[in-house]
Design goal:
Blueprint: H1 9-21, H2 25-38, H3 43-55, H4 59-80, H5 85-90, H6 92-104, H7 108-119, H8 126-138, H9 142-155, H10 160-170, H11 176-188, E1 212-217, H12 226-235, E2 242-247
Parallel strand pairs: 1-2
């Protein structure tokens, strides 16, 4: 009598999924480890192994396997899109370009792998680290995003955008309010050297006939997501009765209007 053939990888995966559904997480994990020994490129099996390890309470192993599954999955998708994986490892600018393409497609998991390759370059600028952090944050990978934003702040201590992204992300970290407050105090120390002058007078000229002056303070309203929230607020102001001031951390980039918003029809402010 001939021996029965070994189960196919698809059959093994089906058995592991059934075991996991029945609460037999350790048995499922062992089966999936054996399956990956035979088929290390099986991304789906690696995702299921991460799930089984999580069900076993092995969280460190779960995270490691999940990140490897995500990386392998992303590299497969990049290769399928005719991306050059070898060039990505050697050319940070090319890896950044690949990341931008997938980020634009809202495939942030794939983008984060490409941005991660670009961010590994010793000379990676803060802008690359910010893109990497945002792609991670969109996936809920907050602690990794915090690390990327922190690295961006270290590269460019005066970058208000980097500080803003880090402060926002800290709210979602364990003990986030305390972390946010500590970081905010640290950023405030950057300006301790700035001379603080007390105005000679706080008196205002008579208000009759003068529009109400309202000031908005933000690092940058045009280059960040703030514009989608600030625009509707500004549109409610009556220009006949209100005068708007926008205080920014830095002057606008060359070629960009100093105005903090544009009408929705796209016309000039």
């Amino acid at each position: 009598m001939s021996a029965s053939p070994d189960p196919s990888p698809a059959d093994e995966l089906a058995l592991a999924r059934a075991e996991l559904a029945l609460g037999q997480s350790e048995t499922a994990a062992q089966r999936l480890v054996q399956l990956l020994d035979r088929s290390p490129g099986d991304v789906l099996a690696r995702y299921w192994l991460a799930a089984a390890l999580g069900a076993c309470g092995a969280w460190a192993e779960h995270t490691e396997v999940l990140r490897q599954a995500q990386t392998n999955h992303a590299l497969n998708l990049i290769a399928q899109a005719s991306g050059d994986l070898q060039r990505m490892q050697a050319d940070p600018a090319y890896a950044l370009q690949v990341g931008d393409i997938f980020y634009g497609r809202k495939q942030v998991g794939v983008a984060s792998v490409a941005y991660g390759m670009a961010a590994m370059a010793p000379a990676a600028p803060a802008a690359v680290l910010l893109k990497y952090g945002l792609a991670l944050q969109h996936q809920g990978r907050i602690q990794e995003a915090n690390a990327a934003f922190t690295a961006a702040c270290e590269k460019a201590p005066g970058n208000g955008q980097a500080r803003g992204f880090l402060l926002y992300s800290l709210f979602f970290s364990p003990d986030g309010v305390a972390c946010h407050a500590e970081a905010a105090r640290g950023f405030a120390k950057l300006y301790d050297h700035v001379a603080k002058r007390t105005p000679a007078s706080f008196d205002n000229p008579p208000l009759e006939g003068r529009r109400l002056r309202i000031g908005y303070v933000a690092p940058d309203a045009m280059g960040t997501q703030l514009r989608q929230f600030l625009g509707p607020v500004l549109e409610t102001h009556d220009p006949e009765t209100v005068e708007i001031f926008h205080y920014v951390a830095a002057p606008p980039a060359p070629g960009r209007s100093a105005a903090p918003w544009r009408p929705r029809d796209g016309s000039a402010p």
